[in-house]
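Anyone up for a design puzzle?
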């Protein structure tokens, strides 16, 4: 207790001495009067007082990680007086342009508060419309951020590569307070590397040794013209126990519309593409299912390209829904790979059936002009099948594309609608006998042939999960594999179109479904379950594949999907 009192007395005498020996003062100092938006600067409060410190800072000030306090003592040999000066410092940045006031600062000592001066700092915005270049200026600071864009001007739909980088004199041991780049308008953004993973490389340029830190490289697509501003990233680099805040300069690039005069076969493709089609067989019989696969390949905005129109003529009916299989990845060239559109067609006439060549036009941004490519025509020999009877409920179309499914509807007609006059005058017993045999034969055909999905004539805008499940359960109980997957495919189509469009009569493309699932933040597991089940329906209906699991397993998955979509 005696020691504590002694220390307290010494501190009191020490403080009193400095108060009496020195005139109290508090002063705010800035090392620079002008900085760029987001760049760090240091505020120093200099005083000969010890006590509680407070300072007024603008709302736009972002606190950095560097905070320090130190003291200096000077001894005057002539006067035998000692002078102590205390420095309190903190780093930070201001995230918007303008002129801002720092201070005053207050140091409270006892019941009295000592007030400092005010200082002003000017914060300016600098931006670039080109990829960052190395010059002497970047080496004046411990670390500098930049956003590298591979183009100053780009066309709508063209792939743009964006690379955030940091040039640093040291290798950081950590990164905190990271904020990604953002954009002034909506962009289609795809990361090319694992997000938020930094890759450092050592370089030596212009006589300087430095480290280049690359992260979050991405490819962008913008579909509307205008000037696009990129709000820069910012982060704090840790070096030991200290930190240095880095913020890149704002960057912009210009998006221009595509030239006029696009060919009629233009599908919106910007890049380099090709088209071909494949047929799974060269010979078939009337009533057989023929698979036509249209393959669009290349690089650019492949993921956003339209689908070609196909004229099937009088030789084929579209049987069921087309499958869309996407096999591409995003690179610095955009989406690179292929999209396969698989049509299941029923051969309805005998003889030589021809598939005409398909035309597709695209815009090449490097050569700045439109190009048209074509697939090679194909032919299939269809053998006559006397036992084949055309079923009127088969979904049929003369010209249809994925984009047009929502507008085309097939309405089944009565098998008697065009033959009523033929029955006039026939006796009732003969008519009854004929009808009995006709319907019995039709039932046998329905058991043998896959059922096609008939577009519903009346609007369907309400979920009927229990109705879906009850019909499917009946097929499970009876072991009806093909009818089960036919009905399930139809129910999935209705459920998704109600969820997306509010109307079960729409037929959505795979792209539309994926976009909807993405917007609604459906889990990865749900999306995988949905598309796996959809593919299983197609394989069992058209590919002759047998299910690996019991039908009840697929029923349980369907129930999960229906209930999720219904929510």
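Challenge accepted. My sequence:
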């Amino acid at each position: 207790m005696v020691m504590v009192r002694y220390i307290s007395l010494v501190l009191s005498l020490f403080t009193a001495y400095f108060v009496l020996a020195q005139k109290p003062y508090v002063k705010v100092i800035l090392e620079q009067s002008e900085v760029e938006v987001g760049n760090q600067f240091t505020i120093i409060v200099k005083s000969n007082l010890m006590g509680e410190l407070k300072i007024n800072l603008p709302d736009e000030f972002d606190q950095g990680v560097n905070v320090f306090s130190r003291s200096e003592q000077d001894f005057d040999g002539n006067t035998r007086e000692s002078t102590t000066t205390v420095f309190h410092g903190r780093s930070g940045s201001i995230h918007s342009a303008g002129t801002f006031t720092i201070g005053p600062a207050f140091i409270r000592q006892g019941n009295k508060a000592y007030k400092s001066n005010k200082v002003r700092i000017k914060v300016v915005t600098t931006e670039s419309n080109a990829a960052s270049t190395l010059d002497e200026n970047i080496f004046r600071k411990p670390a500098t951020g930049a956003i590298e864009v591979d183009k100053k001007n780009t066309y709508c739909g063209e792939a743009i590569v964006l690379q955030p980088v940091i040039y640093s004199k040291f290798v950081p041991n950590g990164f905190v307070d990271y904020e990604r780049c953002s954009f002034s308008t909506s962009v289609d953004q795809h990361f090319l590397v694992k997000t938020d993973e930094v890759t450092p490389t050592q370089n030596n340029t212009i006589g300087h040794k430095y480290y280049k830190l690359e992260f979050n490289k991405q490819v962008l697509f913008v579909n509307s013209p205008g000037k696009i501003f990129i709000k820069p990233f910012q982060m704090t680099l840790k070096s030991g126990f200290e930190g240095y805040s880095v913020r890149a300069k704002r960057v912009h690039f210009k998006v221009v519309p595509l030239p006029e005069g696009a060919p009629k076969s233009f599908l919106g493709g910007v890049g380099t593409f090709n088209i071909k089609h494949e047929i799974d067989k060269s010979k078939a019989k009337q009533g057989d299912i023929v698979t036509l696969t249209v393959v669009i390949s290349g690089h650019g905005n492949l993921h956003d390209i339209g689908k070609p129109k196909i004229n099937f003529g009088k030789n084929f009916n579209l049987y069921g829904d087309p499958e869309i299989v996407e096999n591409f990845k995003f690179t610095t060239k955009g989406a690179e790979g292929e999209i396969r559109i698989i049509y299941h067609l029923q051969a309805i006439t005998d003889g030589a059936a021809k598939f005409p060549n398909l035309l597709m036009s695209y815009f090449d941004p490097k050569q700045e002009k439109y190009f048209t490519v074509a697939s090679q025509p194909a032919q299939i020999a269809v053998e006559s099948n006397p036992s084949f009877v055309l079923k009127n409920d088969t979904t049929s179309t003369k010209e249809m594309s994925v984009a047009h499914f929502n507008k085309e509807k097939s309405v089944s007609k009565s098998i008697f609608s065009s033959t009523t006059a033929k029955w006039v005058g026939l006796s009732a017993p003969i008519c009854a006998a004929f009808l009995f045999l006709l319907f019995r034969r039709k039932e046998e055909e329905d058991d043998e042939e896959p059922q096609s999905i008939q577009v519903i004539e009346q609007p369907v805008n309400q979920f009927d999960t229990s109705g879906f499940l009850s019909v499917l359960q009946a097929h499970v109980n009876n072991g009806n594999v093909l009818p089960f997957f036919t009905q399930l495919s139809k129910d999935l189509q209705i459920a998704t179109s109600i969820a997306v469009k509010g109307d079960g009569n729409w037929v959505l493309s795979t792209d539309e479904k994926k976009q909807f699932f993405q917007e609604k933040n459906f889990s990865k597991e749900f999306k995988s379950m949905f598309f796996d089940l959809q593919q299983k329906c197609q394989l069992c209906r058209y590919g002759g594949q047998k299910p690996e699991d019991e039908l009840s397993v697929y029923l349980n998955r369907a129930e999960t999907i229906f209930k999720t979509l219904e929510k």
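A detail worth pointing out: The longest strand covers residues 61-76.
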